[in-house]
UniProtKB/TrEMBL annotation:
The chain crosses the membrane at residues 278-299, 305-327. It comes from Pinctada imbricata. Keywords: Acyltransferase, Membrane, Transferase, Transmembrane, Transmembrane helix. Belongs to the 1-acyl-sn-glycerol-3-phosphate acyltransferase family. This is Phospholipid/glycerol acyltransferase domain-containing protein. The keyword Nucleus does not apply. Residues 51-173 form the Phospholipid/glycerol acyltransferase domain. GO terms for biological process: phosphatidylinositol acyl-chain remodeling. The keyword Cytoplasm does not apply.
Length: 335
């Protein structure tokens, strides 16, 4: 069997396992055990679309909380996140994200172009319509990053923002154009995230139990046809969306900490009872799974050897570029 067929089969199995177990357990954990309440407003796009999701980056954990939206209104199995490249080397979660087809970026434009092309080409070979989350700001909002954004605004003659950072439009424009060329981009989902209180900025906040009591999302879907075709037009479109976000968040934080929009229509999301059943299943599955792992690790030496072999394999694969670097694609022909 051709190597790509092996990889395709492997990725399908890994992605299905991630969808059914790990990813649905993420919102199950913070919603049911940590008491985080999620409010969705606006209009999502069709879960069948090939979609680019763009979101402001308020904290390091925005990607975590968007799973509450995806599990209710999106295709969990086809949801992909663009992340910093270093995260692929995190033992366990980083390896799982590699198997799930997440996109890891170095923040170096020459290498990131190749990574994006390789991943999109692979999705096309699978006849796969991903929904990819991108943070155009490139980093989360902190005093230091805001100062850099303000400096950039002064240099370019732009307005300074208080609630968002100026987006890096080059990568956004490239991803839009290549998604159009390679996998037929259907829509862009503009997501604005806000926290009424208890904003966890760092890992220390999470470890100290400083979860937000609520997370609010404003969701606005755009057809890909609304976005210009040329690079300059795409960049300008993105800049306008961030200006809108600044105004939206200013109104949010100064006027009651609520988005002035209707809740997402029930027919566009899964039934909440179904969601709660998925959460219960996730808790039961992982409780049993962890208990079995402990038992077998104690009484089954072969499992200990297999675990060691798997860890060494993933460490080596990650060292030499990760699972995504093994993909046999013609990405270079599409540059």
């Amino acid at each position: 069997m051709h190597r790509m067929q092996h990889l395709t089969y492997f990725f399908h199995l890994s992605d299905f396992a991630l969808k059914a177990n790990i990813e649905q357990s993420i919102p199950a954990l913070y919603e049911t055990l940590c008491g985080v309440r999620v409010t969705l407003t606006g209009d999502p796009v069709s879960p069948e679309d090939a979609t680019l999701i763009i979101m402001n980056h308020r904290t390091r954990f925005d990607w975590l909380f968007i799973f509450s939206y995806i599990i209710r209104c999106g295709p969990l199995r086809r949801f992909k996140i663009s992340l910093k490249e270093v995260l692929k080397n995190v033992p366990g979660p980083g390896w799982a994200m590699q198997c799930a087809g997440y996109i890891f970026l170095h923040r170096k434009w020459e290498s990131d172009q190749k990574t994006i092309l390789r991943c999109l080409t692979y999705f096309r070979k699978l006849n796969y319509k991903p929904q990819i989350l991108l943070f155009p700001e490139g980093t989360d909002l902190t005093p230091n990053t805001k100062a850099r954004s303000d400096k950039f605004a002064e240099k370019m003659g732009l307005e300074k923002y208080d609630y968002v950072l100026h987006p890096r439009t080059t990568g956004f424009a490239f991803l839009v154009q290549k998604m159009r060329d390679i996998i037929s981009l259907d829509s862009i989902l503009d997501v604005t995230i806000a926290y009424p209180k208890n904003i966890p900025q760092t890992e220390k906040d999470i470890l100290n139990g400083n979860f937000p009591t609520e997370v609010h999302f404003y969701i606005h879907g755009h057809s890909a046809k609304e976005v210009p075709d040329d690079k300059e037009g795409i960049e300008e479109w993105c800049q306008k969306r961030w200006k809108d976000k600044e105004n939206l968040l200013e109104n949010y934080y100064t006027d009651g900490k609520k988005f002035k929009a209707s809740p997402v229509r029930k027919e566009l999301c899964k039934d909440e009872k179904e969601i709660q059943k998925l959460f219960v299943f996730a808790h039961i599955f992982w409780t049993i799974f962890q208990a079995l792992v402990i038992v077998f690790m104690i009484y089954a030496p072969i499992l200990r050897w297999f675990s060691l072999f798997s860890c060494i394999t993933f460490v080596l694969i990650s060292k030499y570029g990760g699972i995504d670097a093994l993909l046999d694609t013609e990405a270079s022909e599409l540059r």
